[in-house]
Recover the amino acids of this structure.
């Protein structure tokens, strides 16, 4: 930002040229971080200059020809209530000065002008403007954080984490209480595209697609839209829409193709009701979407409320899935390999046709992949690529061998010993990241990924090295920042809460009291007394 842009702009208004000259030369404007942007001999000319220069401070004579100072102030303050008016008044105009204060003037001084008194007054005016600017920035931050928190909350609930519901009561009577259905949009061949794009190109493409999806959503009655995984967006439609689900999906695909030239597919769930059902309908929409890997073409795929078309007697092996998840969490490759063999025997024993067997494996692979994702063991590993590979293999034996190899390699990566110095450096890196991003809705998966460690390994090492658990350290950083804001500003408690990562001021107060033994208000009052 240029130096001029950092300065507050001052307009001088007086019908006596000698006063204008003295104000220009006798006041240390640069030291005050202010600059004079205009001079006017009467209120009428001042009105035009205010429009042209948008000053922050107006120093005006109270009695002038054409339009006097008070009339000038009444004209412009309703349009810009943050303007600071300082009036210059003759000794016999005291009642005018008092009226100016009642109408919203910042202060006044009597002629002959005491320049030291005016400098002190300008210092106070600058303090007010600084506080207004800080509050404006905070309110902008609050609005941005609120939007990000809403997106984050929807994503968390979709993942099955109900924690955000505990403190975001404002959504209890949301539009999701009526019937709705979910559409999951994914870019086709996303892993291939990201291999071709630089990081900057990837960021720009995802930003462009998001804008296209959001604009399309505004035109088609979508309740909400938010990004989920990379290359994937979720849209929630009211169940009462007249257009069919397939038509909506095809219309969306056409819109994205038209403006981005990129191909995508859409998986659409059945209708449901209530925000707590997001985690139930997402697997349905995602499962429908994965049909594209064995259908041979991109397009719209709809959850038809049946598990396996043409063979309803096939039971999904939930017990095997649970055991495989345990083998992943314990990084036990031998156990996982044996369980895949059991899966092959299960399919063979029932003579399940290839198409249905492939659907069973697709459902299992999606679940296992998500657990690898949470454990940070799937870096540079494409789910789309894995499912596409399965689809092109001809026999069950080939499919199971591919799964053993793919998942086994990731388990081996998670089991590799880590150099202690590298580990300490990684933990220090995550500490700095937390200290810079404490105001965001941090999660342990995100931070462990930064350390390039599995979640369980990261938790153990972070506690050993820092003495804190991950959550304790995030809370510690937030509380220290909150204390600093309480000591050094007059920002209200409800405004501080979102700035340090809490969307619910009451919950923030509870956490602060638990950490410090005082409410934020009590803490501020005590430190104010100490300063005085």
């Amino acid at each position: 930002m240029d130096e001029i842009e950092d300065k507050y702009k001052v307009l001088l208004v007086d019908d006596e040229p000698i006063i204008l000259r003295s104000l220009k030369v006798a006041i240390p404007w640069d030291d005050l971080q202010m600059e004079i942007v205009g001079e006017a001999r009467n209120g009428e000319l001042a009105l035009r200059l205010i429009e042209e220069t948008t000053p922050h401070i107006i120093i005006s004579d109270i009695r002038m020809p054409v339009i006097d100072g008070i009339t000038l102030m009444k004209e412009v303050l309703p349009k810009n209530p943050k303007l600071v008016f300082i009036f210059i008044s003759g000794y016999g105009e005291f009642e005018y000065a008092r009226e100016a204060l009642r109408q919203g003037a910042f202060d006044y001084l009597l002629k002959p002008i005491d320049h030291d008194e005016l400098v002190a007054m300008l210092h106070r005016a600058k303090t007010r403007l600084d506080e207004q600017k800080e509050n404006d920035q905070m309110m902008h931050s609050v609005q941005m954080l609120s939007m990000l928190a809403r997106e984050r909350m929807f994503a968390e609930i979709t993942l099955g984490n109900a924690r955000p519901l505990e403190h975001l009561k404002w959504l209890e009577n949301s539009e999701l209480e009526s019937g709705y259905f979910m559409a999951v949009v994914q870019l086709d061949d996303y892993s291939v595209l990201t291999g071709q794009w630089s990081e900057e190109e990837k960021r720009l493409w995802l930003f462009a697609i998001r804008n296209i999806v959001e604009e399309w959503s505004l035109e088609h009655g979508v309740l909400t839209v938010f990004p989920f995984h990379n290359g994937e967006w979720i849209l929630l439609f009211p169940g009462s829409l007249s257009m069919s689900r397939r038509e909506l999906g095809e219309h969306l695909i056409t819109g994205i193709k038209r403006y981005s030239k990129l191909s995508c597919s859409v998986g659409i769930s059945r209708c449901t009701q209530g925000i707590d059902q997001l985690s139930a309908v997402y697997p349905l929409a995602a499962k429908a979407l994965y049909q594209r890997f064995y259908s041979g073409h991109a397009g719209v795929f709809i959850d038809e409320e049946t598990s396996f078309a043409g063979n309803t007697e096939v039971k999904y092996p939930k017990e095997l899935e649970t055991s495989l998840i345990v083998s992943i969490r314990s990084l036990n490759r031998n156990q996982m390999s044996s369980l895949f063999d059991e899966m092959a025997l299960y399919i063979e024993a029932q003579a399940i046709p290839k198409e249905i067997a492939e659907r069973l494996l697709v459902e299992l692979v999606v679940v296992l992949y998500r657990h690898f994702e949470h454990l940070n063991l799937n870096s540079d590993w494409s789910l789309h690529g894995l499912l596409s590979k399965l689809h092109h293999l001809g026999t069950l034996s080939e499919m199971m061998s591919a799964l053993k190899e793919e998942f086994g390699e990731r388990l081996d990566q998670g089991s590799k010993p880590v150099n202690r110095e590298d580990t300490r450096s990684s933990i220090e890196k995550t500490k700095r990241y937390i200290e810079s991003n404490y105001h965001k809705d941090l999660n342990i998966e995100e931070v462990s990924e930064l350390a390039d460690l599995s979640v369980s390994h990261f938790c153990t090492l972070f506690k050993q090295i820092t003495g804190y658990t991950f959550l304790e350290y995030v809370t510690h950083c937030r509380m220290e920042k909150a204390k600093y804001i309480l000591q050094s500003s007059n920002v209200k408690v409800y405004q501080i809460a979102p700035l340090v990562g809490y969307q619910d001021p009451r919950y923030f107060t509870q956490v602060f009291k638990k950490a410090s033994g005082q409410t934020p208000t009590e803490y501020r009052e005590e430190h104010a007394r100490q300063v005085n």
